[in-house]
Amino acid sequence: MPRKSAAAQAVVPLVTPRRLQAPPELTAQQRQTWEAVTSTKPPSWFTRGDAPLLAAFCQAVEQLGVVAGELNRWDPQWTARDDGLARYAKLLTLHQAQARTVAALARAMRLTQQSRLDRTTAGRQARRYPGGNPLWKRTFEDADEEKA
Q1: What is the pLDDT of residues 66-81, one digit of tens each?
Q2: Predicted structure pTM score
Q3: In b/e form, how buried is each residue of 109-129, taking b as 16+ CB within 10 angstroms?
Q4: Number of domains in the chain
Q5: Which residues constitute the domain of residue 91?
């Protein structure tokens, strides 16, 4: 990449890039996902050509939430019914398929942790927290002990 001169670096663009706006056909929940995703990236990250993929991601996230909600409401006693176990298995299959769809769309748009960290950086970060409680199990007391 050629180096920019001091004069070129001193030029301030008159037009600031705008974030990609959500299409009107998205639901309120899908719009929230759209805003949450686009606000984590620079305004120029998503172009108009990315809108269908991002919309599909937002729809898939909402659908994953619907299936997850059904699984969360599942009463284990329902599996004793004739069709209970089959219905539960179907819900699990739907959840897994939808989770794969969300992950694939996120990877395609480079939204995942995998796209932000190379393996040496990830390895270095993992070595910083050997043993003890994993990060997701730590409490505020653990953090206070580490500071002391």
Answers
A1: 999 999 999 988 888 8
A2: 0.70
A3: bebeeeeeeeeeeeeeeeeee
A4: 1
A5: 25-115
